[in-house]
Amino acid sequence: MKIITPILVFYFLVLFPAINLAFTGNLFIYEFWPILYFAFILVLAIALKRISPKQLGFSNIGKNLAVGLLLGLLPVISVPILDSLLIKTGLAQSELFTGAELRVTTEIGFNQSLSGYIFAALVMTFIDQVFVIGLIVNQLLKKQQTGQAIIGGGLLYSLLHFKPSLGNLFLGMISTGLLRSTGSIVAPILVHTGFSIAEVLIIFHYPRLTSLLVFFV
To answer: Which of these, 5, 60, 138, 181, is most buried using a 10 Å CB contact count?
Structure first.
């Protein structure tokens, strides 16, 4: 689509340098400007009828709801299971995990409150997936073969978040793969929500897992 190029050019070449030069002192704008931009572009594109909900992946919703819920539950239930395994195997007593329950979340890079993370898991995840996967990745890579699209989706997802971590790479690849296999954005949204809820559980209830999963952050 022709609208993708100006959207990305403005995002990378105008907004990104402007925010980093002029708004570093405003923590709200500095931290949330990408998601605000994503939401604005989606509302504008739909209002001007430059793209339809169906083109964004909102099709076969009922059919893919169960798939998304099932896959989204996997990371959530994996958190207590993984923590239990660490305790039962005795690894929880190793030096790597010592004092994990005493860590302050802000000291290890988690600066939001519990309500902030819940909002991110339920609302920001939705906007993020619809914009990045439904609009950008889906439109840019629609002519690519599935394997190439999945790898490209992971790279694009990391690039658009300015965070080339393994977590973002895998999340982008999983989301792209699900969109390709189901033909719907529903499953990627619910799976991303599941990972976000799992992150909340780790930060506030299973802090020792931050040591184990630090490379994916």
So the answer is: 138
